[in-house]
Amino acid sequence: MSIRTRDEIMAAVVSTLNETFGIEKSRLVPGAELYKDLEIDSIDAIDLMVKLQKLIGKRMQPEPFKTVRTIDDVVNVIEKLVNE
Question: Residues 6 or more apart from 50 whose CB is under 8 A from it?
């Protein structure tokens, strides 16, 4: 699967969070904070990163994810990576 557009990336992130962590899609909005709102801990965040790497077909470095707080932040990091 090749995701390129912002909408495709958002859909992939939402789908991955829903399938992996069982979070209701209605809670998966751009401004939702991973740690506070969605109760994603650091181990879960690594799991998310690994799953998203497989979807985009590129290796992600952990550094950009250290500043990620919201779903929109995740989308921004991935969007930058896929468009490099």
Answer: none
User: CA triplet 77, 82, 84: central angle to 5 degrees?
Assistant: 95
6-82 CATH fold: 1.10.1200
Residue type, 71: I
pLDDT for the residue 4? 77
Residue with tokens 């990576």: 81
What integer pLDDT is reported at residue 2 of this predicted model? 67
CB 36 within 8 A of CB 30: no
Alpha-carbon radius of gyration of the chain: 11
